[in-house]
Design brief:
- Helices cover 37% and strands 24% of the residues.
- The relative contact order is 0.10.
- A hairpin with a 4-residue loop joins strand 4 (157-164) and strand 5 (169-173).
- The strands form 2 sheets. A 6-stranded antiparallel β-barrel has the order 1-2-5-4-3-12.
- The longest helix is centred in the N-terminal third of the chain and has 77 residues, at 37-113.
- By secondary structure, it is α+β, with helices and mostly antiparallel strands.
- The protein folds into 2 domains: 40-113; 118-269, Beta Barrel (Thrombin, subunit H), CATH 2.40.10.
């Protein structure tokens, strides 16, 4: 490369002189509005680069603004979704509280109309298994509870207490096969014994075939079992058929035993409250 430059030095010198003269002429020559020729050449030479740079900068700025706007919209959308979820949860909580208040109001109204003393209790657990026939309530020996106390709701009877702990108690539901409730039919006043089937149904035993029993008839407590007071709702007859000696009668419990939340426990009558024995 150095040999080539040395060999053609005169050419390069001449070329440099011509370029210098051309630049001097372009500086001296002016065009319209006193614009020098060298400025025109410079503008023509650098305008494509300037346009490219301007286009690149504008596109980059526009893309950044679009990205920033999309990011802001996404963040705002997430905030709105969070606020909507919070509002929905708040509405559900208020609805649950309103439902609980209604249930407690119904329970208190029912309690006020009873002629015997009761203790309100919350259902805290149920026995494990698909066919659970026992529940646990949040009152126990510290509240004066004992075994064989009736547990009821405004809808109907629930069961009786079979085990008492310091701060809780176990309740055997009327749907358990080992349970037994003295009952009578509302219309005919025919008496029988209600026992559970192990599912959410009960069966009324010891009703003779010649007795008139109709589907839809209300079954009440008779009070003969010395646990449940007389006249409380037990359930409704859903099927009746003649058997060998006794009728085959299915009864659906009046209380929703699979949705229990609050119950009333019958308190033992004080000796002063008991009527005198004649």
């Amino acid at each position: 490369m150095q040999a080539f430059v040395s060999r053609h030095r005169a050419f390069f010198v001449l070329l440099a002189v011509m370029v210098a003269q051309l630049l001097l002429l372009s500086v001296q020559i002016t065009r319209n509005q006193n614009v020098r020729l060298i400025q025109v050449w410079a503008v023509e030479a650098f305008e494509p680069f300037e346009r490219s740079i301007h286009w690149t900068v504008s596109k980059t700025t526009g893309s950044w603004r679009t990205f920033w706007g999309l990011w802001g919209a996404q963040k705002q959308n997430q905030d709105l979704r969070a606020e909507l979820a919070a509002a929905h949860a708040n509405a559900l909580e208020l609805s649950e509280k309103a439902g609980e208040a209604d249930r407690l109001r119904t329970l208190l109204d029912f309690k006020d109309h009873l002629s015997f003393k009761t203790i309100a209790a919350e259902v805290i657990a149920s026995s494990p298994g698909e066919r659970s026939n026992a529940i646990y309530i949040g009152k126990g020996a510290d509240s004066g509870l004992s075994t064989d106390l009736a547990v009821i709701t405004p809808m109907g009877i629930v069961g009786k207490i079979i085990a008492v702990f310091p701060h809780s108690a176990q309740v055997l539901l009327v749907t358990d096969p080992s349970s037994g409730v003295g009952c009578e039919l509302e219309k005919s006043r025919v008496q029988g014994v209600l026992k559970g089937t192990g599912q959410n149904l009960t069966h009324l035993h010891y009703v003779m075939n010649d007795r008139d029993v109709s589907v839809g008839e209300l079954v009440l407590t008779s009070g003969l079992d010395q646990i449940y007071p007389k006249g409380l709702p037990v359930g409704t007859v859903t099927r009746t058929a003649a058997g060998n000696i006794y009728k085959d009668i299915d009864v659906t419990p009046a209380a929703q035993l699979d949705r229990l939340e609050s119950v009333l426990v019958m308190a033992k009558a004080e000796p002063s409250d008991s009527p005198p024995v004649r």
